[in-house]
Write a structure and sequence with these properties.
Layout lengths: L2 H23 L5 H13 L3 H6 L6 H9 L3 H9 L4 E6 L5 E6 L6 E5 L3 H14 L22
Antiparallel strand pairs: 1-2, 2-3
Helix pairs in contact: 1-2, 1-6, 2-4, 2-5, 2-6, 4-5, 5-6
Amino acid sequence: MNDRTASAVAAWQEQLAEIAFNCAAASTAEAADLILATRDLLASAPGEWGRRFAGLPDRAALAALIAAGATTTAALSLVEGRAGFLLSQAQAGCPLATVVIEGLTGEASAEGDCLATALLGALTAALAGPALKLQGAQSVSAPAPGVRLN
């Protein structure tokens, strides 16, 4: 990777980190804007990431899903086929999502006000990596692909 590509990836990861933090504080009502912002950012991914996120749903299709009240489905359409994920929600608890992206060394988990913001938060955190600047608060390590138990 040349310096120009590395710089573009770092800038892209900074934007992903911002969305991850916004998802953590967002209300369900803000999910629509975050879905569209995440889609636009993934669609503009530099280098190899651009190839991984080719074929995203178009903005109009996502807007139609959101208008129909299907924010979780809209968020899932950004992840399905591109990453492994787990969604859960206790009956009286916050939604939680975990995302694993092949080729990265770890996974990211996030809570949200709704399943859509939790999923977007985990996806963007997984992609943002060191741009999250958690200063060791989150340890990211995992066995090599193919050795995972989950």
